[in-house]
Design brief:
43% of the residues lie in helices and 19% in strands. It is α+β, with helices and mostly antiparallel strands. The protein has a four-stranded antiparallel beta sheet, with helices on one face.
């Protein structure tokens, strides 16, 4: 096989490339147990991860078992997918990362400033 793995992995990756022709990163999740599915997820963005779309395949036959497309998610599922990117500031690029850094800096300084206020309360 081309990847050095099983033929099912090659077929699953080929199907994912056909399904998601434009992607920056392709992630393959191998099945850890006999009953689990093989997953192939494609991410079209280089700096964010919330638009990741996945396909699940049978680990032996590469038969498509399910899909998860970003455009089919409801607003709550989209917000949940954005959680990591919002938390790290990646959702808004460099300005978002700067805001996340400043917010974490303020949060990290609160115990120190609280202790100083308590120490100098007289």
């Amino acid at each position: 096989t081309a990847t050095g793995g099983s033929p099912a992995i090659d077929l699953a990756v080929a199907a994912a490339v056909r399904t998601f022709p434009v992607f920056v990163r392709l992630e393959v999740g191998l099945a850890a147990r006999p009953g689990e599915a093989l997953s192939v997820c494609a991410n079209p963005g280089a700096t964010t991860s919330y638009r990741t779309e996945c396909l699940w395949f049978d680990q032996h036959t590469a038969r498509l078992l399910g899909t998860e497309r970003y455009r089919h998610k409801n607003p709550g599922e989209r917000l949940l997918a954005m959680n990591y990117d919002i938390h790290t500031g990646r959702i808004a690029g460099i300005p978002g990362r700067l805001v996340a850094f400043l917010a974490s800096l303020v949060a990290a300084s609160l115990p120190l400033t609280g202790a100083l206020i308590w120490w100098n309360r007289r």
